[in-house]
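Intended use. Records like the one below are meant for learning the mapping from a protein sequence to its folded structure. Do not use them to infer anything beyond what is encoded.
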Amino acid sequence: MNATMRRVVVATAAVTMAVSLAACGSAKEAGDNKDKGDNKKKTGPLTIGLLLPEDQTARYEAMDHPLIEKEIKAGCADCKVVYANAKSDTSVQQQQVDSMITKKVDVIILDSVDSKAISSSVKKADEAGIPVVAYDRLAEGPVSAYTSFDNETVGKVQGEALLKALGSKAKSGKVVMLNGWEADPNAALFKKGALSVLEGKVDIGKKYDIDRWLADEANKQMTGAINSLGKDKIIGVYSANDTMAGGAIAALKAGGVDPLPPVTGQDAELAGVQRVLAGTQYMSVYKPYGQEAAAAAKMALALGRGEKVPAEATADSPTKKGIPATLIPPVSMTKDNIKDTVIKDGLYKASDVCTAKYKAACDQLGIK
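Structure written out for the chain above:
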């Protein structure tokens, strides 16, 4: 972990996730909170189901999937991973859970499309003796463990970055908010964190909840905001992630907004990092996916072997309290610390980022 990340203080998440940070001995306490699947003892290879929610956001196929498999193999070379992506379809993901139950996997790592709708499927898995690790989004139902980032803090980091970019001009025009998909419980936490920083300090002209985090939908709503507010009135854009930021920036350019206002993002997608380099996107939130993947793998292996779940916190969903949880702190990434975050930590090679189009910007920042 780099120095930047060590300085990050984990805040307490709220709303759908009430987190109690515990002392060093808390992993034992969290592990004592057992579900049906936790009591079984199994030696030898495990079969672990991995269900991710969508492929519109680059992180899931490019980072989460390979990193989780890598971490599982590191902890159990003979373990098997059965993978499926729901492609933003709730009913498809429910069928995928049913398939994992039929295949008698030992554990399921689940990043839910819709945290509430998937609860009945989580219950089915629990009744079949298959523990579920909620990954990145806290699914409802009897999940056995949970790992994600401190999502309210993500929103605060974004809001603080936008305020810093606006400086003395924070009240000189309108800010447009492009929030995440309502079916994703993290979206409410991002929004809450951002509003806790922005309300009263900027004038929010328009707010939108973007369906399925789609770039095209963000583009459409941003175009509407430009037409409604006027291209000369928009001074900043809060975008909850990089995919939507890309759609918003395209709309700003097409709408003749010049200079471009600061636009936030999240996930440090390669295209987002390159936009930050180019100055068209102000910042992204770097989330060290390797740490989240490692936590999920350790939890899954422990549950599959009937061992105590490694966790340093607990989380509450609307349907279950005291879920063993591991939360990873996020980092604000601007052009000034690209080299010390996504490059230094190995998320991308310099050659991935510094293509011909961005070579001059990379040279200026000493990224080689």
